[in-house]
Amino acid sequence: MTSACPACAAAPLAQEVASGPALQFSLPTIHCAACIGKIERGLRQITGVQDVRVNLSLKRLSVTGPVNPDRVQQTLSDLGFEAYPLDLETLNKARDNVGRALLIRMAVAGFAMMNVMLLSVAVWSGATDATRDLFHLISACIALPVVAYSGQPFFANAWAALRVRRLNMDVPISLAILLATGMSLFETLNGGEHAYFDAAISLTFFLLIGRYMDHQTRSAARSAAKELAALEVHTAERVLADGTETVAVSDIALGDILSVPSGARVPVDGVLMTQSALLDRSFLTGESAAIAAEAGADLQAGEINLAGPIQVRATAVGQDTTLRRMAAMVETAENGRNSYTALADRAAQVYAPAVHLLAFAAFLVWVAATGDIRHALNIAIAVLIITCPCALGLAVPAVTTAAVSRLFSAGFLVKHATALERLAETDQIVFDKTGTLTQPTVIAPDAFTADEKAVGLALAQASHHPLSRAFAVALRDVTPAALTEVQEIAGQGVCANWRGSTVKLGRGAWLGADFDGLGLRMDNTPAKPIEAPEAVRPGVAEALQALNLPAEILTGDNDTPAQRLAKALGLPVTANARPDDKLRHLKDLADRGHHVLMIGDGLNDTAALASAHASIAPGKALDAARTAADVIVLTDSFADLPLILRVAKATQRLSKQNFAIATLYNCIAVPIALAGFATPLAAALAMSISSITVLLNSQRMRYL
Amino acid sequence: MNVLVVLIPISLILGGLGLAAFLWTVRTDQYDDDQGNAARILLDD
């Protein structure tokens, strides 16, 4: 290779290849020091691993070194941990600068608060004349720049609301901070008795704590949900006269011939060109059985090719594909959700005008009564400060933070800001079947000999069919046999050569046996059946019992498997439901006044997930379904599902208690302020005590 | 009261040192994994 600049590019590139990029995994089940030690020690054994670091707070693992991600995941599952690979690109984009800026603003406000408080203590203990003025002046020197720097998030929010002629919580907050600082400065310069610098700064500090907690919980959950590696295809293999090229899905034109390797998703709607194919349509329709297709059949974007490589001619691209039409349905459904008003906003809509009017009325009455504008203004400001906007600002974020971290430690990601409030209101549950309530499983028969197990595993590993994969999982303790001439026959099964004889894994009919299901045949001995019941996800029965809400199943699958599950769980079922049927069903329920909780995983559920009052998706759900859901369940078991609703209800209860506490403080403090007895000391006390009470009350979430 | 001339700057400087130390910890990512750091102290290796 010749290069115009030998020194640049080549060296760092080589180094990067040698060390390999860092891999990131989400580990929802780790919880203690022993887990850290076990994982870090276990992974260091793998050749190529250079550095392993577990982050317990984020439940995340990063591995550097030239190592195969599958190998790492295999080792982790051998150690007994569930692991989900994270998408590095989205991870790097989501660097959290806002959170850090808030933390620094909070620290600066905290530093200033401590110093100004120290000076204020001297004033409260009776400093007079020149000493008092000096202390006020030093306080002003500290407070003014700090308010200007740390208060920015509130000023920006308040300004944004005022510009569109609306009021939010930040308007009275900004007004209180600015008026308190301005009035105190005026009093200081004129040798006045009272200055509220400490109140202005502690208000800023307490509110920044709330703001930071709010941001932390939301961003952690949201980014973790986004980072779970995308399942959707973004590129496709276009077949040219002389080989293939990789193109972005958006660049595919009508009539292009595309090659879909086995195990991959069909990128666009198209017509099958290959003789026959076997497709998994469960994400699209909820059908649990694999579909066999002949040449000329219509394929839809998102189906998984289970057998050998196939070729597809594109018939619909871009906005016209089934996938995109579903995405459009999701967008319309989501608009409804965004109009939900959060509890804190509803409180602000009542609180903000009331406080402004009260302060203004106090000003007018005192001017009318005494004619002393300076004194009247002092009282109006005391009212603004003492109405405890900081307890109100902390009321919801403090509880939500505690609730979200409580759920996070149980393996649930809460993605949406108002999710917990909406979850608390649900009174009806709608489940999807395939992939949500059920998982494909295979029971490894005890009657199999060691050889049969080894051959069965080797055959199962050669196929992408869901049953083969489940069979491979059931046999994970076995060492696979060495096979030759492995061949997958679409729609039938896998056959291979083992020690000179033919071995087959597949449909009963194809093996020449008298059963329909999956079976294994060794050479010329009779085929042995393998039990493959569609297993109910662990914990579903317990969860249903504990939830104690009316529930039903809405599935795209056929009647027979749907009825079987319905009987097992004792729930009403609607089979053969298409995505718009599901959407219509949810709308009917909503019209009848129900708040529906939708739990589903497939693309056919996505619109329903987005339009339901609240929604939950399992961690292995399709990207689009995870995006549409409010809460993601990272663990395999649904047993903890009732915990979500319990925490949601507790969140609402504790938030309302917090508002009640803040209101109680107001009822005591506001009359004092209106009567003109509120000193800066009283303001500081009222503010600190109410904020701390609210924070402590929120911590009760831990003992749920 | 002349002692104030000394004490007030000292208190401000000490507070400022604390703030600077905190800013340093933020900039060096020391708050990324508080639970993990608490647990790691129990590990032998």
Automatic annotation (TrEMBL), chain A:
PANTHER family the UniProt entry points to: ATP7, ISOFORM B (PTHR43520), CATION-TRANSPORTING P-TYPE ATPASE-RELATED (PTHR43520:SF5)
Transmembrane feature ranges: 102-125, 137-159, 171-189, 195-213, 350-369, 375-399, 659-675, 681-698
Originating species: Yoonia sediminilitoris
Primary localization class, coarse: membrane
GO MF: ATP binding; ATP hydrolysis activity; copper ion binding; P-type divalent copper transporter activity
Name of this chain's protein: Cu2+-exporting ATPase
Domain HMA: 21-84
Translocase is among the record's keywords: yes
Biological process according to GO: copper ion homeostasis
Record bears the keyword Ribosomal protein: no
Domain of life: Bacteria
A GO CC term assigned to this protein in UniProt: plasma membrane
CDD domains: HMA (cd00371)
Membrane topology: Multi-pass membrane protein
UniProt subcellular location: Cell membrane
Sequence similarity: Belongs to the cation transport ATPase (P-type) (TC 3.A.3) family. Type IB subfamily.
Pfam family, one: HMA
Keyword entries, A-Z: ATP-binding, Cell membrane, Ion transport, Magnesium, Membrane, Metal-binding, Nucleotide-binding, Phosphoprotein, Translocase, Transmembrane, Transmembrane helix, Transport
InterPro entries membership: ATPase_P-typ_cyto_dom_N, ATPase_P-typ_P_site, ATPase_P-typ_TM_dom_sf, ATPase_P-typ_transduc_dom_A_sf, ATPase_P-type_domA, HAD-like_sf, HAD_sf, Heavy-metal-associated_CS
UniProtKB/TrEMBL annotation, chain B:
Top-level taxon in the UniProt lineage: Bacteria
One Pfam family this sequence matches: FixS
UniProt cross-references to InterPro entries, sorted A to Z: Cyt_oxidase_maturation_cbb3 (IPR004714)
NCBIfam families on file: ccoS
Protein name: Cbb3-type cytochrome oxidase maturation protein
